[in-house]
Write a structure and sequence with these properties.
Layout lengths: L8 H4 L3 H11 L4 H4 L5 H8 L3 H18 L3 H8 L1 H19 L4 H29 L4 H28 L5 H6 L3 H10 L25 H30 L4 H16 L2 H10 L4 H20 L4 H25 L4 H19 L1 H13 L3 H21 L13
Helix pairs in contact: 2-9, 2-11, 4-5, 5-8, 5-17, 5-18, 6-7, 7-8, 7-11, 8-16, 8-17, 9-13, 9-14, 9-16, 12-13, 12-16, 12-17, 12-18, 12-19, 13-16, 15-16, 15-19, 16-17, 18-19
């Protein structure tokens, strides 16, 4: 029987080193590709590409998420979560190095490899949290989203100064991100001590398809709407505020404000979830916050720093809820990983259209208003789905991904 190195830690105390290692893994699951957004204008100029093609830098990883996510639960059952997370960090590092080599081929090839690594980490972390910290799901989810957001905000703020430095350019700015998976991988190696691959006879056969539950589709829809909003905004916010008159450096800072604000809702979500009987009202409230942000950016873009903070906070809060639902609606770690795989496969299928669609709308019309209205529609849809997935219900005990 496969035994994880900290399987007893959850019953004997709070394993701080494991907590820190998970935070470091999480820090790699957003910044390596969202940190590209402030450089999209430079990439367009340097490589002579239009906005739609530049948008592929954000869309490609989402497509990879959609393709790779269904494979992860089966690989995890075969090789173990710890080994798969280490493999994810290795892929992210290889992808960062390849992407920085220069030219469109390496730019997109490296992005695909990064996407595969991030997909594995995205699917596995909710399962790790459910298995290792079953009584602290909201806390751990909020904490690792905070780690993701802080690192993403840091790189959003740093890439332009690095690229503009006398010794730098966009390639060096992207290569600098390699330090994250290297350090994180070294730390995560400690989680492999004492582990072994599951024996063939110990791997449980999956039950009936998880997609036979309506709750699965509702969770997938909620996750999809949130992902569409996040990746659309993270891709084009610098361009939107740049058109409103902000400089490239200011646009990068506004982008950083959005990223950092998206990490802060954990300070609200954890105590709120402890007091509420379900999460329906919390989701609706947070959706109202990001709707206010979209309204502000359309009507009064000069206050972009404020609207970016509202957008980051509202979308970030619902992202924490979306990830929390993967554990809260599951009965065990394996089911959480299966639900995570399902939500991210279908969710990113929808999300992948966002950056490309919004870029195409801008190319066609030459302005961002219609693209922002599309985001408003997805926000409303998410609020409606939140009234269903926010209920305190669980998946049937015999469901799992195949």
């Amino acid at each position: 029987m496969h035994t994880s190195p900290s399987s007893s830690a959850t019953s004997s105390g709070f394993p701080l080193f494991l907590f820190f290692a998970i935070m470091m893994v999480a820090a790699n699951l957003r910044a390596p590709f969202t940190g590209v957004a402030p450089l999209l204008t430079d990439l367009q100029t340097s490589l002579s590409i239009n906005a739609s093609t530049a948008g592929l830098m954000i869309t490609l990883p989402l497509i990879v998420f959609m393709v790779v996510s269904p494979l992860i639960p089966r690989l995890s059952r075969r090789y173990g979560m710890e080994r798969m997370l280490l493999a994810a960090l290795v892929l992210i590092g290889i992808g960062i190095a390849a992407r920085s080599a220069g030219g469109l081929f390496w730019l997109f090839s490296g992005t695909v490899i990064i996407g595969a690594g991030i997909a594995a980490g995205n699917v596995l972390l909710p399962g790790v949290v459910k298995s290792r910290f079953p009584n602290h799901i909201a806390l751990l989810t909020s904490a690792y989203v905070l780690a993701m957001g802080i690192m993403a905000a840091l790189w959003s703020a740093l890439v332009i100064p690095i690229a503009d430095a006398s010794w730098g350019d966009w390639q060096i700015a992207l290569l600098a991100m390699l330090v994250m998976p290297v350090i994180s991988g070294i730390l995560w190696l400690t989680q492999l001590k004492g582990t072994r691959k599951p024996e063939p006879g110990s791997v449980k056969k999956p039950g009936r398809s998880i997609f036979r539950s309506l709750l699965t589709w509702q969770v997938c829809g909620f996750f999809a709407c949130n992902s569409f909003l996040y990746y659309s905004v993270v891709s084009w916010l610098p361009a939107v505020v740049g058109e409103a008159g902000f400089s490239d450096a200011q646009a990068g800072s506004i982008h950083g404000v959005f990223q950092f604000a998206g990490a802060l809702p954990g300070l609200v979500i954890v105590p709120a979830m402890a007091r509420l009987s379900d999460q329906r009202g919390l989701s609706a409230t947070m959706t109202a916050v990001n709707l206010a942000g979209f309204a502000g950016i359309m009507v009064l873009p000069s206050l972009a720093y404020l609207w970016a903070a509202l957008l980051g906070f509202g979308i970030g809060a619902n992202f924490i809820l979306a990830l929390s639902f993967l554990g809260l609606r599951a009965r065990n770690g394996d089911q959480a990983a299966s639900l995570s795989s399902a939500a991210q496969t279908l969710g990113y299928c929808i999300a992948a259209t966002g950056p490309l669609l919004l870029g195409a709308i801008y190319d066609a019309l030459g302005e961002w208003q219609l693209a922002l209205w599309v985001c408003v529609i997805f926000s409303i849809a998410q609020a409606l789905l939140g009234t269903r997935v926010g209920r305190n219900v669980l998946l049937p005990a015999d469901t799992a991904a195949g």
